[in-house]
Amino acid sequence: MTVAHVAHGHGDGTAALAPSLVLVVLAAGYVVLAARRRDDGRGWSSWRTASFLSGCTLLALASALHLLPDLAEDFRGHVLQHLLIGMLGPLALVLAAPITLVLRSVPPRGGRFIGRVLRSRAVHLVANPVAAAVLSLGGLAVLYLTPLYAATIGSSVLHHLVHLHFLAAGCLFAWVIAGPDPAPRRPSVPARLVVLGVAIAVHATLSQLMYAGAFVQIPVPPDQRRGGAALMYYGGDIAELLLAFALVATWRRRPGRSPTAGSTVPAAPPPDVSPARRFTEN
Predict the structure, then answer these.
(1) Would 21 be classed as within a structural domain?
(2) Torsion of CA 16, 71, 138, 206, to 10 degrees
(3) What pTM, to 2 d.p., does this model score?
(4) What is the helix (H) or strand (E) element at residue 232, kind and residue range?
(5) Number of structural domains the chain divides into
(6) Where are the alpha helices (DSSP H) in 40-87?
(7) Which of 64, 169, 235, 255 could join 83 in a cystine, given CB atoms 3.0 to 4.6 angstroms apart?
(8) What residue numbers bound the domain in which 110 lies?
(9) Are 176 and 127 in contact (CB under 8 A)?
(10) Are 31 and 24 in contact (CB under 8 A)?
(11) Torsion angle, CA of 8/9/11/12, rounded to 10 degrees?
(12) CA distance 264 to 46
């Protein structure tokens, strides 16, 4: 027996409006900090600002898809939400370097606190490409290979928790693979490329299993399941190629490093650079 994917929150205007309000606040906060950076002469990339606003727009679009009955009741609409919330939206947000913007905007005391958090044992545990890939791809596997997806159809709370996991795991994976923000103990670019290659292969395999209907537990009509699998396969390829491009674009010798392979001699920062700025640049 198959059931159609049902929309969550149709009758709850507050639930539908809340994500958009949060995104508006985040976007406004980012724009204000970026404007202050420009006003004080230190500047901030307009491209990064555009990237953050694009990420917020993609997430807002994903949260509004349930307002379109044809997509809300179709499994392909669910997969489109997954792509926007778990892959494309997080990539755009991460490429905007929000942590760096905050570090360069808060007082030194606040920067030192953020630095301690980023260097904490808990962050070291999850801010690892392998751990991030497991959280992201493992979430997909649990959703589609167990009865979890069927459970989300009947539970609005569970439905939103799954989307929250997609968002958090997507941001974490994009950050540790190719994010411009500082990350603890980030491996070399070749090592991250290997992890990304494995993630691409696992994502493609899961899409193919979904298309064939093998091992998956997705109670939707076969045409919707196959259409969702195709969207997941090709849409995932686009998101992962963009992530790979962002990673390869960072593969260059950083300023202040010795030309000798493996040497790590940071450039001495100007005397007036705050600890927060120094943390960002080293």
Answers:
(1) yes
(2) -170
(3) 0.83
(4) helix 222-248
(5) 1
(6) 46-64, 69-72, 75-83
(7) 235
(8) 13-251+276-281
(9) yes
(10) no
(11) 170
(12) 30
